[in-house]
Predict the structure.
Amino acid sequence: MIDSHIHLDKYKDLEITTILTDVDWLEAMLSVSTDLQSCLRNLELSRKDQKVKPAFGFHPEQSLPTEIELNKLLEWITKYRTEMIAVGEVGLPYYMRMDQKVSKAQYGQYIDLLEMFIQLARQWDKPIVLHAVYDDAPIVCDLLEKHSMKNAHFHWFKGDTKTMERMIRNGYSISITPEIVYKEKIQRLIEAYPLELIMVETDGPWPFEGPFTGKMTHPKMMKESILSIAKIKNLPETEVADRILEHTKSFYRI
């Protein structure tokens, strides 16, 4: 399996060691970045273990970077772009907006920032990892279509049927967390989404509920996700695992 979305840099050092020494069955993990320090850490981790595939970007669920901070980040990413597997995690601040922490003017700046990252991904021929849920997702689809960006990965996607159908038509990929084991809305999403566009992820160290309550988020939880997808798709577990693995390898050129 491949963990298509994890924040490995956010784990404690001992937890990282535990994960990296306990995943013989794991082909790779895509460790996404949230800011410049996160990029630096993920690059360091990838140089220590070839299973760690870093993505560089700026997570939208935080205050906008200053001009100086953004310039430093872009200069650094440009310098090390050959060592990154994708641009990410980037997107729009849905949850901050719902908490009224983002003004209309600021939201426009987040859109501009995302568009810039989409243009860079297109220019550098890199996939893009997106944080884009609910009513932010159609705006992101608009930007992707505007720049003819096909290699788009909507991680932990949540949204309406109309947007989902648009994403399927455009060939955009989604990834599913262990939440699928106990959340009916995610199960319905997987029922409708084509298997050839699905990946699995943990989004660790984000914690999960249900059978995972109180447990450190670990890539091995994806085994339960695969089992749930197999039941929903009425396919053998091994076939689902193989097809998801092949799609993820092809998408990220692993």
